[in-house]
Amino acid sequence: MTRPQNNPSAFNGPATGQDVLFDGSALSAAQITAIARGELPSTLSEQPDFIRRIDRGAEFLDRLWQEEGVIYGVTTGYGDSCSVNIPPHLVEELPRHLYTFHGCGLGEIFSPVQTRAILAARLASLTQGFSGVRYLLLQQLHRLLSDDILPVIPQEGSVGASGDLTPLSYIAAVLAGEREVIYQGERQPTAGVFSQLGIEPLVLRPKEALAVMNGTAVMTGMACLALERARYLCTLSARITSLNVLAIQGNAGHFEPRLFEVKPHPGQNRIAGLIYEDLGGSEQQRQSSRLQDRYSLRCAPHVIGVAEDALSWLTQMVETELNSANDNPIIDPEQERVLHGGHFYGGHICFAMDALKNAVANIADLLDRQLAQLVDPKFNHGLPANLTGARGEREALNHGFKAVQIGASAWTAEALKLTMPASVFSRSTECHNQDKVSMGTIAARDCLRVQTLTEQVAAATLMAACQGIRLRQHEGLETAALTAGVRHTLAQVDALFPLLEEDRPLESTLREVCGLILQRGFEPG
Predict the structure, then answer these.
(1) What is the DSSP letter of 129?
(2) Structure pTM?
(3) How many CA atoms lie within 13 A of 258 on its CB side?
(4) Are the beta carbons of 18 and 40 closer than 8 angstroms?
(5) Rounded to whole angstroms, how far apart are CA atoms 460 and 470?
(6) Cis peptide leading into 329, omega within 30 of 0?
(7) Is the peptide bond before 162 cis (omega within 30 degrees of 0)?
(8) Is the CB of residue 168 less than 8 Å from the CB of residue 122?
(9) Which of 72, 99, 170, 345 is catalytic?
(10) What is the per-residue pLDDT for 17?
(11) How far apart are CA 162 and CA 10, in angstroms?
(12) 38, 269, 350, 505: which has the fewest C-beta neighbours closer than 10 Å?
């Protein structure tokens, strides 16, 4: 089989300003995330060679089923029903039945960002040219993405093999003008939106519903988002650790480059370097009255570094899946063959998400321990209990971050609870045809939930660390002695969160800080 060169890149920086081109060539997780977040537009190739390559598969399939009459999922039933032959005059009705009977998803619907990531991931796979769909279908799918017509997709109902059948059925149905979409912020019937925009519903050809549904796009789209959130969280957690070292008057020598030269994990050492740079790296700031700080400070690069180092190979796994043909059967228009297999199996995504949620949850645990140390007068080296800014007789009345620390502990516990690998819960389904399944979509959903919880812990710890530094400033810490990066973050937090003196509800501020973290709003400075 000939295909465009696929060299997925571990794209670590911000997305470029160029359109993302869907033409079967390799895309990165960062590009999918940029599309999903509305940061980059996308384009479907209109090159004649690309269009011919796509349509050739559909034309071969149409000719084959009419000549030979037996092709799985085209002239037969699905899954365990593959031994049931469909009468020729009913073959063209089969795709509609597939997406219709799979319309049984439950749970919350995917967010707009998640839905865009799912659409982009499915388009990336179908443009490989081995799924037997028409270019016309790719145009319709890309129209959903470019015009922000977002299928309403329930989150629950996929076991991750035979792909994300139930959630992706909602995309197949929308392509045909059925079910519902979110358009211009409103949930509406697809038929009405298509009529308004002059979009002709597709009558899906044999294999096209199967091609849309029988793949890993839901778990893969979410995995792309998870990778980019984790990448940002690692950098932010390094900055939060720096703030905590300053607030607690810790030992900056724990992060010296020479120390980390002898244990050269690249990601771990990058995190240590960020913290060391934040702390100034000066002889004066390396001095401390304590030889060694507690592990949650001293070992922060080692904890955050696990996630940082894992991201490189997890990204490779996810991007390989993203840039693959992952449905069944595979249509090879070049050799005119139908290849039956199991590329819908989401095991690599499941493993990546199970691993990533573990690494991210450990960051939640790390930051929670830093926060616990910061609010406790037995360990915070002279800061007031619970970081209250009240003074005099009012100090006894006010409780500062006491409840926030309890909340952070709860969020951390929930994140840690979700680290059980989803893959070990494979269930035999569909008359034991799908007798070993990946659970990749559940793993990806768990991973995003763990990240949300960890971001909440990060928000709480960031606010507390800045409160601690402000209190040190009242004791004589000079702002000019702080590095530019630290001052930048302090200024950003100051704009949202004035010094906490008298107790006040902090929910709205926590939500705002969480929102900024999700939007990567705290720049390194």
Answers:
(1) S
(2) 0.93
(3) 3
(4) yes
(5) 16
(6) yes
(7) yes
(8) yes
(9) 72
(10) 58
(11) 28
(12) 505
Q: Which amino acid is at 313?
A: W
**Amino acid 287: pLDDT:** 55
Architecture of domain 20-215: Orthogonal Bundle (1.10)
CATH number of 223-325+346-426+434-518: 1.20.200.10
pLDDT along the chain (525 residues), means of 10: 40 57 98 97 98 95 77 70 75 89 97 98 98 97 98 97 95 98 98 98 93 97 98 98 96 95 98 96 57 95 98 98 95 91 95 98 98 96 94 92 98 98 90 88 98 98 98 92 95 96 97 97 77
CA angle 495, 496, 501 (to 5 degrees): 100
| Res 290: pLDDT | 76
Q: Which two tokens stand for residue 428?
A: 């035999």
Active site residue 276: no
* Alpha carbon distances (Å) from 251 to 132, 134, 271, 480, 486: 62, 63, 16, 19, 16
* Closest CA relative to residue 230, chosen from 496, 406, 10: 10
Q: Are 343 and 329 in contact (CB under 8 A)?
A: no
Which residues lie across from 20 on neighbouring strands?
Answer: 42
DSSP secondary structure, 302-366, as one string: HHHHHHHHHHHHHHHHHHHHHTS--SSSEEETTTTEEE---TT--HHHHHHHHHHHHHHHHHHHH
In single-letter form, the type of residue at position 315 comes to T
**Cα–Cα distance for residue pair 286/28, rounded to 1 Å:** 40
CB 394 within 8 Å of CB 502: yes
- Distance (Å, whole) CA 442 – CA 174: 23
Alpha-carbon gap, residue 147 to 511, rounded angstroms: 30
Burial of 496: CB neighbours in 10 Å, binned 0-12, 13-18, 19+: middle
The Cα-based distances of 83 to 77, 91, 242, 432, 440 in angstroms read 7, 15, 63, 14, 28
What is the three-class DSSP state of 22?
strand
What integer pLDDT is reported at residue 89 of this predicted model? 79
Q: Six-digit token pair at 61?
A: 């399939």
